[in-house]
Amino acid sequence: MKLWLAFLFLAQGVLVGAGAQWKAQRKLPAPEAHQAAAAEGKFVYAITSRGIAKYDRKSGERVGLSQGSAKHLNSGFFWKGKLLCAHSNYPLKPERSEIKVLDVSSMQLTTFKDFGSAGGSLTWVLHKGGFWWCNFALYGADNHRTFLVKYDEKWKEVARWTYPAKVISQLGRHSLSGGIWRDGELWTTGHDDPVAFRLGLPKEGSELEYLGQHPVPFTGQGLANDPVSGGLVGINRAKRQVIFAGTKAAPIRLRVLCYNIHHAQGVDGKLDVPRIAKVILSVKPDLVALQEMDQKTKRTQKVDQVAELARLTKMKSVFGANIDFQGGHYGNAILSRFPITRHKNHHLPNVDMGEQRGVLESVIKISKEENILFLATHLDHRRLDAERRASAKFINQMMGDRDKMPAILAGDFNDVPGSPTLREVGKLWMRTNPEITPTIPVAKPVRQIDYILVRPKERWKVIETKVLDEAVASDHRAIFAVIELVD
Predict the structure, then answer these.
(1) What is the mean pLDDT of the chain?
(2) Closest CA to 465 of 165, 292, 256
């Protein structure tokens, strides 16, 4: 798209649509990619004015050329295993139009339907809902007269519509060359610009309803739905390429909470797991890293706090035990709204017989295509930082063989921003809060020792980070972040 045209679209406020961002996912060289492209399971077809080439989808090898006469083929679509193509005598007058059909086994091209002179040049044809939909294009000063006809199965005209001025005004002296039905909308393309116009049938009147438009990675002319990928297939006319396109996924937004719960004992001395659950649910998190969790210990009345919090929050859970304590276990836990496909607890380096610490690693399936690592940790609390620095190095080294997967690390690091511990962590991880966000002491926080961190930096966008305004349920305040995983 020319730069000035892009600015014009933005100024008109017409670069809108159903949220899709289309991008080229594969480019297949094809000298015949001059008019349009179409696709079926194993093969892709490049359409030029006088013929059609068949390409193996997987190898990109040309495996056939059409036989039979043609003067000006345009868009193609598959119907009952055969490729139907719009055909006309353009630019001759009077216009004559017909539908050509390609037998994809023999590659023989014959006439399927002859319209004779229909008042325009047929540029695309579709079959949907028991009806035929045919676009007859006019050019130059008459392109506003381009029209869409709906025929029944016996080719009796049922209705016809013209196109809105917002579409015609963007075509110059050209007309509409491609069309598909997609998600209940009619998408159509012009001659040169990488734009698909989205249209709807009006409740009344004879002009199609303008719904918006998408940028697409095609320079015209025809386009088709790809039954394999669910995306689109079109052409780059200048480079003679068939282009396969898919939607650029919208960023996945995650709500992440990190909370040292002090085994659910608040500063008021009360053991209260439901109170902790209430704090967690207050921000509707997707992922939660919890520290100082008791599992069936005597001091917390033999309650499995992990299982109880999972029940109260209706989230999935895993636990990493680091210490055997009072008949039970003590360690870190993870809650997740998404499936936890794998998890493993790693004991961190222990210096001078300190309290055993750990990092709980999990793989979270946040979408059909995307997994992330989510790690919950709690580092040593003593004044000397040798163990904390060793633990930070351990976590970074642990990530070496997981380098390609987006990751979140959350926990109580028992150290402040700017400390050697956080500098070591910062070699690999980015804090979600660039500004210091104090989490202790709980009544009036002045120091930050609890963090949510992400990596790699280019895969994450921080929307918000804050410390929760709750000062009773634990001796730490919880830290919360909203982050997006970007493509």
Answers:
(1) 93
(2) 256
**Residue 74 backbone class (left: φ over 0; alpha: ψ -120 to 50; beta: rest):** beta
Contact by Cβ (8 Å): 107, 66: yes
Question: Per CATH, the architecture of 19-247 is what?
Answer: 5 Propeller (2.115)
**The two structure tokens encoding residue 214:** 């998408």
Contact (CB, 8 A) for 125 and 77? yes
d(CA 119, CA 137): 9
**CA 184 – CA 162 distance, rounded (Å):** 18
10: pLDDT confidence band, cut at 50, 70 and 90?
Answer: very low
For residue 470, how far is the Cα from the chain centroid?
35
> Residue 141 has which token pair?
């000063």
The pLDDT, as a whole number, for residue 9 is 36
Q: Read off φ and ψ for residue 265, nearest 5 degrees.
A: -100, 120
DSSP conformational letter for 300: G
The reported pLDDT for the residue numbered 16 is 36
E-strand ranges in 392-459 read 407-412, 430-431, 450-455
Q: How far is CA 319 from CA 272, 358, 360, 365, in A?
A: 19, 11, 8, 18
What is the DSSP-derived secondary structure letter of residue 262?
G
Q: What contacts 24+ positions apart, CB below 8 Å, involve 304-309?
A: 305/261, 305/263, 305/264, 305/273, 305/333, 306/333, 308/273, 308/277, 309/273, 309/276, 309/277, 309/280, 309/333, 309/335
* Segments of the chain assigned to CATH 3.60.10.10: 252-485
CA distance 199 to 234: 19
Specify which residues 198 forms β-bridges with. 187, 212
CATH code reported for the domain at 252-485: 3.60.10.10
Which part of the chain has CATH 2.115.10.20?
A: 19-247
Q: What is the pLDDT averaged over residues 403-422?
A: 95
Give this prediction's pTM.
0.60
